[in-house]
Amino acid sequence: MAEEKILIKLENLSCGYGKRMVLEDINFQMEEGEFIGIIGPNGAGKSTLLKTILRIIPPLRGRIFFKEKDISQIPRKLLAQEIAYVPQQTQVWFSFSVEEILRMGRYPFLTRYRGEGERDWKIIQEKIKLTGIENLFLRNLEELSSGERQMVFITRALIQEPKLLLLDEPTAHLDIGHEIEIFDLLYRLNREDKLSIIVVLHDLNLASQYCDRLIILFAGRIEKSGKPQEVLDYRTLEKVYETVALVKENPITQRPHIFIIPEKFR
User: Fold this and answer.
1) Residue at 129 is within a domain
2) pLDDT in tens, 229-238
3) Domain range spanning residue 133?
C-alpha cells in the first residue's frame, strides 16, 4: 500500500482581522485524499480559517505548508493551479453567462500570450458533463436557481483541476435534494478521483455522513478532532452549541445522527 503524503499542514496558526484574533494556535495536517469537515458555531472562525489557507487574509502567527512548501512563498497563480475555492457567497455583480463563469476556471493556466486551447476546452466540457450542467451552459447566471448557481461555481472550481478543494457552506439555503446531490458529487470526486476536500458546514448530519474526519472549532481553538464517531458526542455538542442534543447511530451508515431537542420537550 502506498504511503499517504501530507498535503497541507498548519503549525501554531493564529488568524483574524487586524488586531482581532479569531483563531489561536491551530495545528493540524491533512493527508492526500482526505475529506475533512470543519464545524462549529457561528463566529467560531471556520470561514476565517479557509481564507487564511487561501491567503485571502494573512496569518497573524504561525505557518501553513502545502506539499511541504511554505504557502506564503508559493506564487498566487501557481497556488490557484493546486487549490480551488467555492465561497459561501457566490454573488456576481455583473451579468455573466454561465460559459464566462466556467472559463474563469482556466485563468490560472493562461498567459497574456495564450488563451484557451483545445485541452482547456476539453477540460471544461468534461467537468460540465461530470456535474450535469450541460443545459445551463448557454444561460445567464441571474436566470438560475440557487442550486443551479452553486453547481456552476463548483464546476468552475473543478475546471481548475485542483489537488485540494475548499468549500465554505456549499449547501447553505439549498433544499435537501440539492444538498444530497452536491455531497454525493463531492464524495464521488473524493473516492474515485482522490480529490482532497475541506468543507465548512453547519449541518452536522451531512458532516457525519460524508466526511472522513471532523474538526470542531470553539472559542478560538480546536475543541476536538477525529472521526465523526469521536467528535459528535452529546457532551461536546451541548458544550459547543449550548443546546440539548441526542446522538444515535444511523442504522444504514453506522455514523452518528444528531437530534436537537427543543426546550418544550426537555
Assistant:
1) yes
2) 999 999 999 9
3) 91-161
